[in-house]
Automatic annotation (TrEMBL):
Similarity annotation: Belongs to the Glu/Leu/Phe/Val dehydrogenases family.
Signal peptide: none
This protein's name: Glutamate dehydrogenase
A GO MF term: nucleotide binding
Cellular compartments per GO CC: cytosol
Lineage, broadest ranks: Bacteria, Pseudomonadati, Pseudomonadota, Alphaproteobacteria, Rhodobacterales
Catalytic activity: L-glutamate + NADP(+) + H2O = 2-oxoglutarate + NH4(+) + NADPH + H(+)
Length: 450
C-alpha cells in the first residue's frame, strides 16, 4: 500500500511531467529532490501556500539561440546554444557552460535545477543557472574554438552581466575557453570586467578557481571520513574522468597521503595498483590521443580498454566525469569490493538504482550538490574580488575553500535527525536537498508572490 509521502510525490510529479513531458533528465532531477523535500514543504503551511517547490521547478527564463560559425575548411556550421536561468532568489544566476554533443535542454534544465540547491548550500549570494551548446570541441583547432566562442557569446552576451548572470566553465569549457568568452563579453558590453568566473587572472580571474572543485571534493570527503572517525591517509581512491575536477581531486588526495588508483576517460581506465606517483599523474594529464593508451613501462600504470574504474576495489569512489556514469552493475562492484564512501565530483553521476543499491549496502554517499560545491563557491569568491577590485592570495582562498566545504558538511549534519541512514550515519543525499530547500523556501516566502 502507498504511504502519504508516495502519494504526495506521485501527484507532484504528474504535474511537472505534464509541463515537461519528454525531458527525462530534468524529471529525474526533480523527482530525486521532490522525494526528499515534499514532506518538509507539506509540514509548513507557509511553504505549502507559497508552492515553493513547484515554483523552483519552473525556470525564471530559458534563452535559446543559434550559434553560427565557420570551420577551418570555410564551411558554415550551425549549433544550438542555451542558458537556463533557473532561479535568482538568492543572488545573480550562477552556473557553468557545457560544450558537448550530449547537451540538450533537458540535461541543462536538470543541471540548472540542481545548481539552485547547490548554490544555496554554499551560504553565498548565488542564484542558479546552467548553459551550453551541442558543440563537440574535441578535434577542433584553436582557431575553430575561438570562432565558436565568439559566436556563442554573441547569442549569450545580452543576457549576462556581473549582477545578472555569471556563467563559468563545465565539461568542454576550461580556462582557455573562459578567457575567449569573457573577452568576447567585454567587447559586447563595452566594459572591462568579468561576467564569467574561472577566467584568466589577466582578466580579473581568481587564483584557485581551477583547483577548487577537485580540492573541495577532497575536503568534503575528509569531513565525511572524520565523521566516521577515519582519515584519508592510505585510503585507496578510485577516480573517474581526467579533466579539471578529476585532476585536482587526484592531486589533493595524493598530497594528503591517499593512494589514487585510477583515472578514466571515455575509452577506458588507467589503473595504478599501488597508487599514481606524481610523475605518472603528470604524464597522464599531459598526454593526448592514442599515446595515452600505452603508458611508459616504468610508470606502474596500465590502461584497461573499455572498462570503468569501479571494480578495482577502492575504499573511496570519486566519480568525476559526467552524469549517469555509475550504474547498478558498477554499484554492485563497488559495494562487493569493500567501498565505504562515495562522493560525487561530477553532477548527478550515479543512476537512481545504483544510489539505492549503495545505500542498502551501507556505502555513505555525498551528492554533487554538496561535495562538488567548492567550484561554485570559489566562483562566488571570485565575484567578491571583482566587485572590490581585489586579488586574494591562493593560500587564503584555499583556507576559505576548506572552511566553506566544512560549513556545508555542518549544514548537512544539522539535518541528521530527519536525514539518517538505517545504520545511523548521516543521509547526505537527503540532507543536502532538505538543507538547500529550507534556505530557498525562506527566501521565496520573504519575497511574496512574484
Ligand atoms: N569544472 C567545475 O568547476 C565543475 C564541474 N562539475 C562537474 O564535474 C564533471 C566534470 O567536469 P570537468 O572536469 O570540469 O570537465 P572536463 O571537460 O574538464 O573533464 C571531463 C572528463 O570526463 C571525461 N569523460 C566524459 N564522459 C565520460 C565517460 N562517459 N566516462 C569516462 N570519462 C568521461 C572526459 O574525457 C574528460 O576527461 C561534470 O559533471 C561537471 O558538471 C561540477 C562542479 C564544478
Ligand atoms: O562556478 C560556477 O559558476 C559553475 C559551477 C558549476 O557549473 C557547477 O557547480 O556544476
Amino acid at each position: 500500500m502507498k504511504d502519504r509521502a508516495d502519494t504526495l510525490l506521485e501527484n507532484f510529479m504528474s504535474g511537472i511531467a505534464h509541463r515537461h513531458g519528454g525531458e527525462a533528465e530534468f524529471l529525474r532531477a526533480v523527482e530525486s529532490i521532490a522525494a526528499d523535500v515534499l514532506t518538509i514543504e507539506k509540514a509548513d503551511s507557509g511553504f505549502t501556500a507559497a508552492r515553493v517547490l513547484e515554483r523552483l521547478c519552473q525556470a525564471d527564463q530559458v534563452i535559446e539561440f543559434r550559434v553560427t560559425w565557420r570551420d577551418d575548411r570555410g564551411a558554415v556550421q550551425v549549433n544550438r546554444g542555451w542558458r537556463v536561468q533557473q532561479s535568482n532568489l538568492l543572488g545573480p544566476y550562477k552556473g557553468g557552460l557545457r560544450w558537448d554533443p550530449s547537451v540538450n535542454l533537458s540535461v541543462l534544465r536538470a543541471l540548472a535545477f540542481e545548481q539552485v540547491f547547490k548554490n544555496a548550500l554554499t551560504g553565498l549570494p548565488l542564484g542558479g543557472a546552467k548553459g551550453g551548446a551541442d558543440f563537440d570541441p574535441s578535434g577542433r583547432s584553436a582557431a575553430e574554438i575561438e570562432r565558436f566562442a565568439q559566436a556563442f557569446m554573441a547569442g549569450l552576451a545580452p543576457h549576462i552581466g556581473p549582477d545578472r548572470d555569471v556563467p563559468a566553465g563545465d565539461i568542454g569549457v576550461g580556462a582557455a575557453e573562459l578567457g575567449l568568452l569573457n573577452r568576447a563579453w567585454m567587447q559586447h558590453a563595452r566594459v572591462w570586467g568579468g561576467a564569467l568566473t574561472g577566467k584568466p587572472q589577466s582578466q580579473g580571474g581568481s587564483a584557485m578557481r581551477a583547483q577548487a572543485t577537485g580540492y573541495g571534493l577532497v575536503y568534503f570527503t575528509q569531513a565525511m571520513l572524520a565523521e566516521e572517525g577515519a582519515g584519508i591517509e592510505g585510503k585507496r581512491i578510485a577516480i573517474s574522468g581526467r579533466g579539471n575536477v578529476a585532476a585536482h581531486a587526484a592531486r589533493k588526495a595524493m598530497a594528503l597521503g591517499a593512494r589514487v588508483i585510477s583515472l578514466s576517460g571515455r575509452a577506458g581506465t588507467w589503473h595504478a595498483a599501488d597508487g599514481f606517483s606524481a610523475a605518472a599523474l603528470d604524464w597522464l594529464l599531459g598526454v593526448s590521443g592514442d599515446a595515452a593508451q600505452t603508458p611508459p613501462k616504468d610508470m606502474g600504470v596500465t590502461f584497461i580498454d573499455g572498462c570503468k574504474p569501479w571494480a578495482l576495489e577502492p575504499d573511496i569512489a570519486l566519480p568525476c566525469a559526467t552524469q549517469n556514469e555509475l550504474d547498478l552493475k558498477d554499484a554492485r562492484a563497488l559495494a562487493d569490493g569493500g567501498c565505504r564512501v562515495l562522493a560525487e565530483g561530477a553532477n548527478m553521476p550515479v543512476t537512481t538504482d545504483a544510489k539505492a543499491h549503495l545505500a542498502r549496502a551501507g556505502v555513505i554517499q555525498a551528492p554533487g550538490k554538496a561535495a562538488n560545491a567548492g567550484g561554485v563557491a570559489l566562483s562566488g569568491l571570485e565575484m567578491r574580488q571583482n566587485a572590490g577590485f581585489a586579488r586574494w592570495p591562493a593560500d587564503q582562498l584555499d583556507t576559505d575553500l576548506r572552511e566553506i566545504m566544512c560549513a556545508i558538511h555542518d549544514r548537512l549534519k544539522a539535518e541528521r535527525t530527519s536525514c539518517c541512514m538505517p545504520g545511523g550515519g548521516i543521509d547526505y543525499r537527503r540532507a543536502a536537498s532538505v538543507a538547500g530547500y529550507r534556505v530557498l523556501a525562506r527566501a521565496m516566502v520573504d519575497g511574496g508572490v512574484f
